[in-house]
Amino acid sequence: MPENTSRTELSALGEFGLIERIASRVHLQHASSIKGIGDDAAVIDPQGLHQVVTTDMLVEGVHFDLGYVPLKHLGYKSVVVNLSDVFAMNATPKRITVSLALSNRFPVEAIDELYEGILLACKNYGVDLVGGDTCSSPSGLVISVTAIGEAKQEDIVYRGGARDNDLLVVSGDLGGAYMGLQVLEREKAVFTETGAQPDLVGHDYILERQLKPEARKDIIGLLPSLGVKPTSMIDISDGLASEAIHLARSSGLGVRIYDEKLPIDPSTYRTARDFNLDPSTCALNGGEDYELLFTIAQNDFEKIKGNPSLTVVGHMTDKASGYSLVDKQGGVHELRAQGWDAFLRKH
Amino acid sequence: MPENTSRTELSALGEFGLIERIASRVHLQHASSIKGIGDDAAVIDPQGLHQVVTTDMLVEGVHFDLGYVPLKHLGYKSVVVNLSDVFAMNATPKRITVSLALSNRFPVEAIDELYEGILLACKNYGVDLVGGDTCSSPSGLVISVTAIGEAKQEDIVYRGGARDNDLLVVSGDLGGAYMGLQVLEREKAVFTETGAQPDLVGHDYILERQLKPEARKDIIGLLPSLGVKPTSMIDISDGLASEAIHLARSSGLGVRIYDEKLPIDPSTYRTARDFNLDPSTCALNGGEDYELLFTIAQNDFEKIKGNPSLTVVGHMTDKASGYSLVDKQGGVHELRAQGWDAFLRKH
Prior knowledge:
By secondary structure, chain A is α+β, with helices and mostly antiparallel strands. Chain A is about 35% helix and about 25% strand. In chain A, helix 4 packs across helix 8 (about 265-275). Residues about 340-345 of chain A have low confidence and may be disordered. Chains A and B meet through helix 1, strand 2, strand 3, strand 4 and strand 5 of A and helix 1, strand 2, strand 3, strand 4 and strand 5 of B.
């Protein structure tokens, strides 16, 4: 993390000063954001649309390590992970609130960096920052973001809508964010032991997947243009296996995934091999990819076929068939959820 | 905090187990809560109403001390402080999300206690728990609540609507929560030094003000029945002085408060004296009372006169007159915001 040349203590800015500093950098984009920062609550005009609400908490030492995560990236990611949940409802995120608990080891300049990332995500995704809470923390940094999106009632896609034989489709590629994390942790360990500067050359793609993930706003736009509405959808935060099981459970079905179909970027594949990890396992359980996983009717296959952003990785089955993984030799195994962290769970 | 007889480790319950445990205890009350816990986001049907959104974060060691705050009370309070912000918009809270970061020193039974308080508040205030996030924390407990309320557009009351000469009115009485905190901290110090059991006799009212505050839902119901709509409103979390200045600043006005008008409960008064504190200072700056502070037109005075829940404590002035406090001898002093914690600030 580059050092700032100046350091302003939070106490010097004061409570009102900090809010005004944040508020002065916020420009509401939507007329439907009637009131943002500066009252007891934000006010929203839903304009006849349903609202979707999701929230995620990021905790220092659990979800991120400031030893290798720049604050600006952290701010960006903390917004994106929430927007990803909104897209997973086939809705459009419009507003967020951001609450921070931070210790006095963070100067005002650090908060500025964090908000730079938060506001960049707001700009890129067309989202208004409408409120929040900033308080002190005895130790680490905690970021809690709530995102609110909107959609027509009939457009919302739930986890529970899949039908037997629906195709299971994933956007983008998988396992990259997990391999990016492995590289960062290896280089941090090397640095701690030897003082050697991190060697991150050649890992641009997977590092960006880890440090600056994007939510698949484009897919939410693409699908209607292809004439496809998913029957069920979820975003991949814990890994493909875990999320596929979520869709199956919620829909009262089983699911079957084919190893040979998993979309894995060459750099993810190569790095996994370097780490003596099975690339498929990374793709299935790596997590933090923030791709969208959804089901479509078999009849819609022709509409998505050949689209470089979309890969059919399996299909839904009846409930009795359970959750299964077909390996490259045709062997059938039980599919298990092994998220990247057993105790991280949105509900 | 009473010891539980059994202790179940979170790891034994597992990620899905914890969510299912929480979800099984939640019963949505509102048909407009289309989807609660169990998808990527909750889904709300606004039914033509504007939505208000507020969020507050409570951090162990900053906002609460588990040495004397029972978890059930903490859960209750963490909801109430958010609902208070919704009422301060003259809106009705309908839904909350709750995110928790907690270390493995908390067994499942502790989380149960916390949710018991959260769900009791939901029941008492007619609010649906529609989502959240539970994750681990390296050290203390962090609770982040987001509350969403609704109101007709024309009913919403902002901080900035006060006019010159409007009367400044407060609900209930002030300073009690602060004095309750003083008693708790004194008894904790005595216990730490001598091992003597806390002597809390005779402090029921102020302890309840601190440990189990209520949000003034009744006032939001009372005012329309009296034919009164506030011109501006805020809830008192940081102390009367600070909040009155908020209303004045937001409205481009000054404000004048009369010491002799401050509503102070006899037990608050007596305890302040025992602590060698000025009761008026406690009422002005104590904070955490979660009463409503609002302005009304002079013409509406007759409508609220004599109501035991409402006290006129001052009036708005032109901006040039600034923020002033008139003491019991008629002397005029500058009114200053000295909230109970200089670095706790909702925006």
